[in-house]
Amino acid sequence: AQSVTQLGSHVSVSEGALVLLRCNYSSSVPPYLFWYVQYPNQGLQLLLKYTSAATLVKGINGFEAEFKKSETSFHLTKPSAHMSDAAEYFCAVSHTGGGNKLTFGTGTQLKVEL
Amino acid sequence: DAMVIQNPRYQVTQFGKPVTLSCSQTLNHNVMYWYQQKSSQAPKLLFHYYDKDFNNEADTPDNFQSRRPNTSFCFLDIRSPGLGDAAMYLCATSASGTGGLEQFFGPGTRLTVL
Fold it and tell me: Do strands B19-25 and B73-78 pair parallel, antiparallel, or not at all (unpaired)?
């Protein structure tokens, strides 16, 4: 079974500092991996996804993630945090079976401080 | 813009009183999903439709039902809401394919059970 683990349920950074949100996956086959962001009382929005085309994936709002097979990781980074980045971030893995189902990690709440 | 729409955004119901949440999409996607998300938790898949084929998750309570009368619309029926069913309900869609396809989420309906 495929799964993802997000280390750190809460991360706090200063505005302008590096953002690093951790995600490790478990999969017996090459995975499809996603990062979604959720602002309060809203749905989820896709930040970026890995589908084996390139190991370094660039997404929206200045975020990127690097797929590292040797470390089974897909960590999300942004060089300089902005106040508007404060939100909940979910890593997810797509099932290779029918229905394109996602299994989400438990989420990381990002707080950005002045 | 193509999108996923959920109505209402906020729904209040009484304990045991049936409630229906609706979702519509203009993306013309084959697959539609319903998730339940409780506070500070990851979305939990309840079921999904692949075209008209209904796929229930093994741990979804019988209290939750769904209908998909056509490609554009999907409904979530909660037959006898309990206090534990208070949550955000998210609808999502995706195209059909072999994997790596993103899901597009609606803004969610927040259900309160009194």
Answer: antiparallel
SS (H, E, C) chain B: CCCEEEECCEEEECCCCCEEEEEEECCCCCEEEEEEECCCCCCEEEEEEECCEEEECCCCCCCEEEECCCCCEEEEEECCCCHHHCEEEEEEEECCCCCCCCCEECCCEEEEEC
Residue B43 sits at the chain A interface (C-beta within 8 Å): yes
- pLDDT tens, N- to C-terminus, chain B (114 residues): 769 999 999 999 999 999 999 999 999 999 999 999 999 899 999 999 999 999 999 999 999 999 999 999 999 999 999 999 999 999 999 998 766 789 999 999 999 999
Instruction: Identify the DSSP state of A26.
Output: E
Interface of B with A in 57-86 (CB under 8 A): none
Q: How many whole angstroms separate alpha carbon B74 and alpha carbon A49?
A: 26
The distance of B101 to chain A (nearest Cα, Å) reads 7
**Are A75 and A22 in contact, with CB atoms under 8 Å apart?**
yes
